[in-house]
Design a protein that fits this description.
The complex is a heterodimer. By secondary structure, chain A is mainly alpha-helical. Chain A is built from 7 helices and 6 strands; from the N terminus they run H-H-H-E-E-E-E-E-E-H-H-H-H. Chain B is rod-shaped, with a radius of gyration of 39 Å. By secondary structure, chain B is an alpha+beta fold. Classes of the chains: A mainly alpha, B alpha+beta. At the A-B interface, helix 1, helix 2 and strand 3 of A face helix 2, helix 3, helix 9 and helix 10 of B.
Chain lengths: 314, 446
């Protein structure tokens, strides 16, 4: 094939262009750390990366939700602890008050303390986490007990659910077996109840009855304190323990959900990296090779386009 | 029979003239080494008609034929027509894929960028804002965040739709511009018509207009990047059945029914008269417009699904509009609610339904769109790379046949120069002979 000068210089230029373009490509991959910098580099990988990134964002949101649920459950446990303390103190006071040797004024004083314990229990149930009342069911903007409404529970009996990851739902107010034998979600009504007016025998009812008996002071009252009131207190203590176990179990579930989400997060990040990330060691090695090839073609190209017959004709 | 006295002079003169003509051709080639579309020429010599000598020219009494020197038979243009056809086909393919790749790349970087403003990332943020609301149903901050994410998302939809629509419109306008009076095709067509006439006149006179033919081939090469070019000899026949206009060509462009150039008439095609696949840049631009409108349709479907599924799940409407071009947010942080209408403040059923839409139809449609546009750009880019490299190879072959090699021309120049010197020497010798004959013969003893 006949070769002209123009052919040779055109070929030199186009080859240099190709080498340089390849070099620029590798440099882009190294500086961004990604093999796929736009969808046209690998359309399928880009599309899958989009879906994985969306999943990852969902996982992160679920992690926040689980953390929120754990905070809620921790506060629930603390509040239940306060109710448990109130009940044990009430039990001690009941034993004291049942003692026939106390005067009526002493019994009145004990009744006063019982009434304070009732207030303390209600305060514990009025606990909030970040602006939400945690013992009102889904009516988290309403306090379970207020001074205007007395012992009547103002919240509802719905379950408060939170996302715990794909296919996992956490319940912030876990269901437990209440006094009375029914399974109810944990709220002020299922623990403290609606007071003496409802006669449900729960904490408020039991303690109010106890205070009334102490103030009454008759033999029948003292008898009642020793039997029905103490039994009521014990039964309520069992119910509160059941509530605490339910909260503990839900807390464990939340921890397990958090750890599962961490694994899912790692998996998603790894999968994204596999799809579109660049192997830095390989890329840098490629760059060195390509750079050397480019310089070699520059050198040889420069040498081939220069000589001509004109140099040798005199 | 004697040879006429000045025959030798004429023979030498012809030699000198022929070598001079060859040198002229060499210097023409050297002058045009960088001219685009130039095909090298050479002077083809042939021995000139012999002189018939009558009886008695040779010793045995018979006649003879005496050579009378050299003539230029033709100034031959070295060109391979087959390579020209190949070149035009590849130029057309390269023109089409180049314009498609460039314009779709712009749409691609808008639609699927790696920045935080990417539609996919905004979708993620929108779903996450509902996740946060589901975990904090009474929080006004969470509600405001939902409204903010929705507004950013709606705005991105409308901006993206407008951008892609603009890309499609620009492509369609570019087609009209190319075919218009100010476009590049009309001047080429008009010049081709003029050349048709000039070449026809030259060929009718029997000469070979090499440089005009080069110019015409160059124009056809330039034309082929814009659309499909097919060339045929003018079909008009004269009474004897021979071509009536030798040298004229008929140029069909873009698959239009009426030829672009026929004899001296120019008929510019319009967007309506072009075929469905005109090839070249015209075809590429039409392709871009069609694809961009396809992306818009998918985007509109995405937006419509978003509007209907979010609004139907939510107690009060979140979005208004019907598609990507008019999606807007009507909810405020007061009307956004995590729960159903009339439910307790801590209810998060609505938020749960909406956040469950993550990873559903909308997200998969978007990732499908990303893959679609990525593969469209990838196809165009690789078609362009292929066409360009085939084009390079054909250009090299063309240069091999028609290109001027400086070294070769130098060597030829020396050859013809020596030839000229030798012929001039022969001329001098003849002159000397005649001088002897004319001035010195018959002057015996003077």
């Amino acid at each position: 094939m006949r070769i002209t000068n123009n052919m040779v210089s055109a070929r030199v230029v186009s080859d240099l262009q190709a080498r340089y373009a390849q070099l620029a490509d590798t440099q882009l991959q190294i500086s961004t750390g990604r093999r796929v910098n736009q969808p046209s580099d690998d359309p399928l990988a880009a599309a899958q990366e989009r879906l994985r990134t969306s999943e990852l964002s969902g996982i992160k949101a679920s992690q926040d939700s689980v953390a929120g649920a754990q905070t809620w459950l921790n506060q629930t446990e603390t509040s239940l602890g306060q109710v448990r303390d109130a009940l044990s103190r009430a039990g001690e006071l009941a034993l004291e008050g049942a003692n026939g040797s106390y005067s009526q004024s002493d019994r009145d004083a004990i009744a006063g303390e019982i009434e304070q314990l009732v207030k303390a229990a209600k305060d514990a149930m009025n606990a909030k986490v970040g602006g939400d009342f945690i013992f009102s069911g889904t009516k988290s903007d309403t306090a379970p007990y207020s001074t205007a409404t007395g012992d009547a529970y103002q919240g509802d009996a719905a379950a408060v659910t939170r996302d715990g990851g794909a296919g996992v739902t956490l319940q912030n107010n876990p269901t437990f077996v209440t006094l009375g034998g029914t399974s109810e979600p944990l709220n002020a009504a299922s623990v403290l109840g609606n007071g003496s007016a409802s006669g449900d025998g729960r904490v408020l009812d039991a303690l109010t009855q106890l205070a009334a008996h102490l103030r009454g002071g008759t033999t029948a009252d003292l008898q009642a304190i020793q039997t029905t009131d103490l039994q009521a207190i014990k039964a309520n203590q069992t119910a509160v323990s059941a509530a605490v176990s339910a909260v503990g179990a839900m807390s464990n579930r939340a921890t397990a959900a958090a750890s599962r989400l961490e694994d899912l997060e790692d998996g998603a990040i790894q999968s994204i990296d596999d799809l579109t990330g660049v192997d830095l060691a390989k890329a840098i090695t490629d760059y060195s090779t390509q750079s050397a090839a480019y310089q070699a073609s520059l050198k040889v190209g420069a040498q081939i386009i220069q000589p001509s017959l004109l140099q040798f004709l005199s | 029979m004697a040879i006429p006295a000045f025959t030798g002079l004429n023979t030498a003169l012809r030699g000198v003239q022929a070598q001079q003509a060859a040198l002229n051709v060499v210097s023409h080639n050297i002058a045009n080494v960088e001219t685009p579309g130039y095909s090298r020429q050479e002077a083809v010599f042939t021995a000139s008609p012999t002189l018939r000598l009558g009886a008695g020219a040779k010793a045995d009494g018979t006649g003879a034929q005496l050579g009378t020197g050299v003539e230029v038979l033709a100034y031959r243009r070295l060109r391979d027509d087959f390579l020209d056809l190949q070149y035009r086909a590849q130029t057309m393919a390269a023109g089409q894929s180049d314009v498609t790749a460039k314009r779709l790349s712009v749409v691609q970087s808008d639609l699927a960028s790696t920045t935080d403003g990417d539609l996919g990332k905004l979708l993620d943020k929108f779903w996450s804002s509902w996740d946060t609301l589901a975990a904090n149903p009474t929080s006004t901050d969470a509600k405001a965040a939902v409204v903010g994410a929705a507004q950013t998302l709606a705005q991105r939809f409308t901006t993206l739709d407008a951008d892609i629509a603009a890309a499609a419109t620009q492509a369609t306008t570019a087609v009209t511009d190319l075919l218009g009076n100010a476009g590049p095709i009309k001047p080429i067509a008009e010049e081709l018509a003029k050349l048709n006439q000039q070449i026809n006149m030259a060929q009718s006179a029997g000469t070979s207009p090499n440089d005009l033919l080069d110019r015409r081939d160059l124009l056809l090469d330039q034309l082929s990047q814009y659309g499909q070019v097919s060339v045929a000899a003018d079909p008009t026949l004269d009474a004897a059945g021979n071509p009536a206009y030798p040298g004229m060509i008929q140029v069909s462009f873009g698959g239009a029914a009426t030829p672009l150039v026929s004899q001296v008439a120019v008929t510019m095609p319009t967007t309506a008269t072009l075929s469905a696949t005109p090839g070249g840049q015209l075809g590429g631009l039409q392709d871009v417009a069609a694809k961009a409108n396809g992306y818009r349709t998918t985007l509109a479907t995405m937006a419509a699904t978003m509007i209907s599924s979010v609004n139907s799940a939510s107690a009060s409407p979140v979005f208004s509009g019907t598609g990507a071009n008019d999606i807007a947010v009507v909810a405020t942080s007061a009307t956004i609610s995590a729960g159903a209408a009339g439910a307790a403040a801590g209810d998060n059923s609505v938020a749960n339904t909406i956040r469950a839409l993550r990873g559903g139809t909308i997200d998969t449609t978007y990732s499908g769109l990303v893959r679609q546009i990525g593969s469209d750009v990838q196809t165009a880019t690789s078609a362009n790379t292929t066409a360009t490299s085939v084009l390079d190879s054909i250009t090299a072959q063309r240069a091999s046949t028609s290109g001027v090699s400086m070294d070769e021309e130098m060597a030829n120049m020396i050859r013809f120069q020596r030839g000229y010197q030798a012929a001039a020497r022969a001329l001098t010798t003849m002159d000397d002979l005649l001088n002897q004959l004319i001035n010195s013969t018959g002057r015996v003893g003077m």
